[in-house]
Specification:
single chain; mainly beta; 8-stranded antiparallel beta barrel; 3 helices; about 15% helix; Dirigent protein; apoplast
Length: about 180
């Protein structure tokens, strides 16, 4: 009788040690809304062009003339569209003019990092096409850090205001992520 009870105890210990936290395996859905300020003009731009098409372009299409231009950005993220509202993070990355015909479209590779509030220290990344003249643009979320580890989801971008080439863009974000701890 002593052997079977030790075997049952061993099996119980093995099962208990192999059981994982099922809450950590369930995806959590988070909705966030914020505004990004993309400033390309003035004395303190937050986005700067670092490459452009060679000067051998001879066409008259202004969109095609911009094809291949690459900009690097470090844009503030705020709670409201007002540039003086609370800064909750920064959007850092690269965008490139990706269309040659009839459409002002960017390829975006950005990380949205939070520096305050409930998401402080966490970030998510977006990689995708942004047809900026559309009223609403949808882009995929492909990963994240902090509480957004293993993130996936989507964001809707809508231009709130534009002056020359400076823009305020509203973001409505839906993120699926897991409660993964290291």
């Amino acid at each position: 009788m002593a052997v079977p009870s030790k075997l049952v105890l061993l099996i119980a210990v093995l099962v208990a040690s192999c059981t994982t936290d099922t809450e950590a395996l369930k995806p959590k859905k988070t909705h966030i809304q914020f505004y990004m300020h993309d400033i390309v003009g003035g004395p303190k731009p937050t986005a700067v062009q670092v490459a452009r098409r060679l000067s051998n372009y001879t066409g008259s299409d202004p969109i095609a003339a911009m094809f291949g231009s690459v900009s690097v950005m470090d844009n503030p993220l705020t709670v409201t569209p007002n540039p003086n509202s609370t800064v909750i993070g920064r959007a850092q990355g690269i965008y490139a003019m990706a269309s040659q015909h009839n459409e002002f479209s960017l390829l975006m590779t950005l990380t949205y990092g939070f520096i305050s509030g409930p998401y402080n220290g966490s970030s998510f990344s977006v990689v995708g096409r942004n047809p900026v003249m559309n009223e609403v643009r949808e882009m995929p979320i492909v990963g994240g850090t902090g509480i957004f580890r293993l993130a996936r989801g989507y964001c809707f971008a809508r231009t709130y205001s534009m002056y020359q080439m400076d823009a305020v863009i509203g973001y409505n974000v839906t993120i699926l992520h897991y409660n993964v701890t290291v």
